[in-house]
């Protein structure tokens, strides 16, 4: 129901308003934030971008980034997320035009939920500066060289076996080189995935399919739909799939207490910092992710991604079957995945798991991202080891920024955080990793205390 004397939801649209494809009225209606916030349900979703109100109820099902990521902003102001995820907003606005049902009333503030308008404006000014200085433009040479070093690792691993045979030491060395190439390919596909947002015909989109499909055996669409949710609402329960621990772990400060009060004990959570080493790093890639990937490709009938994925396994077995046979090749890829999984878990979790986790709080983009992320100190090794994800803060604030520019924008982000009193955390690599275990132990202790005494 809108203000300004417009008709009610059940009445006929006023002359000239028209009814959009999603059942919304034309763009002449005006609404309050209170009215917009009522439309946050699965079957009734509105959102606001630049003070314009859109009915996305039906469009969400066709959203290229997936239904969930856009639905996470139902009933909210999605302006900052819209700008962050879409390198070419003008291209996307043509899809929004038919969904327009009105705008905010002139008396309504531009920000919802009492967000700090000055902070939001200052961050927008920073983004404008970033765009004007060309920091969102990728350098193809950088990524070409990076891809080259991954292919070189693969070629060297296979070449060693051809030249020297399959001794235990050479097989182990080959496994380490393959695990390194898989981890680095993971960081590279992560780059291409972010750079290919809304550029389905771009070179980076095609390379993303090649790297994640042919070089890693995974699915680009599965990764995009999962990972963009993480960026949209990091460390928010029920919205960030990266903290959906399926009752295996309790995370943060609130979830453990909630589980403890309800007397939920799916696992001995006060020991989770110990069993994490057994079921976290070793299994997430070779077991959990692989099951998810293939289940998603078949359930979504994503035959293109399935073909790319199968090309990886066909190439792998053609290369290594002559040396190890079928079962030996299966053992080799399993061991490579096992090693890669450890690398992946520690790099991704050291910047997120020890940070704040909560239910939806409708924070502004800067505050939300900074509360859920921290940086790891810059060094040549840390940059390479983490695929520049040691700059998680800058990556989350500007998800379409190419990684070679993170270090340039980092001082500007730090200055903005200092101005507004937003914590900007930087840790050593060792502290980042040990904090993962400390946070799990802290959460487990909170659960035990609530379970026994509340």
TrEMBL record:
Residues 17-27 have a biased composition (Gly residues). Residues 28-105 form the Cytochrome b5 heme-binding domain. Pathway: Lipid metabolism; polyunsaturated fatty acid biosynthesis. It is found in: Membrane. Its main location: membrane. GO terms for molecular function: oxidoreductase activity, acting on paired donors, with oxidation of a pair of donors resulting in the reduction of molecular oxygen to two molecules of water. The chain crosses the membrane at residues 141-164, 275-293, 313-336. Residues 1-28 are annotated as: Disordered. It is a multi-pass membrane protein. GO terms for cellular component: membrane. Keywords: Fatty acid biosynthesis, Fatty acid metabolism, Lipid biosynthesis, Lipid metabolism, Membrane, Oxidoreductase, Transmembrane, Transmembrane helix. One of its GO terms (biological process) is unsaturated fatty acid biosynthetic process. SUPFAM superfamilies: Cytochrome b5-like heme/steroid binding domain (SSF55856). The keyword Chaperone does not apply. InterPro entries: Cyt_B5-like_heme/steroid-bd, Cyt_B5-like_heme/steroid_sf, FA_desaturase_dom, Fatty_acid_desaturase. Belongs to the fatty acid desaturase type 1 family. This is Delta 5 desaturase-like. It comes from Oncorhynchus mykiss.
